[in-house]
Amino acid sequence: MDNKLIIRFRNVKLNQEYDIEVPADLTANELIYGLKNSFKLDINMDDPKECFLRAENPIALIRGEADLTSLGLRDGSVIFYEK
């Protein structure tokens, strides 16, 4: 994984934080699917109104087929799950 990002995943509901390493060319939907399965998140992948996460540093809405770098995510970005 040469082109990677180290980002922080914060589960607000459970007050948990993790540093995760992900490929920079991963799409938003692939990231959400991976986090959903890894952390047993209650995200309905079939409902676009529910299938998103938010980020800080930079502020971004993570959804769709855009890759993480085009969304502006970089090392140190924080992704929040708040449901």
Question: Can you give a write-up of this model?
Answer:
- With 83 residues, this protein is α+β, with helices and mostly antiparallel strands.
- It has one domain: Phosphatidylinositol 3-kinase Catalytic Subunit, Chain A, domain 1 (Ubiquitin-like (UB roll)).
- Helices cover 14% and strands 33% of the residues.
- The protein has one helix and five strands; from the N terminus they run ββαβββ.
- It has a five-stranded mixed beta sheet.
- It is globular.
- The protein starts with a strand and ends with a strand.
- The model has no long low-confidence stretch (mean pLDDT 95).
- It holds the Pfam family YukD.
- It comes from Pseudobutyrivibrio xylanivorans.
- This is WXG100 protein secretion system (Wss), protein YukD.
List the helices and strands and how they pair.
Layout (H helix, E strand, L loop, with lengths): L3 E8 L4 E8 L4 H12 L13 E4 L3 E3 L15 E4 L2
Parallel strand pairs: 1-5
Antiparallel strand pairs: 1-2, 3-4, 3-5
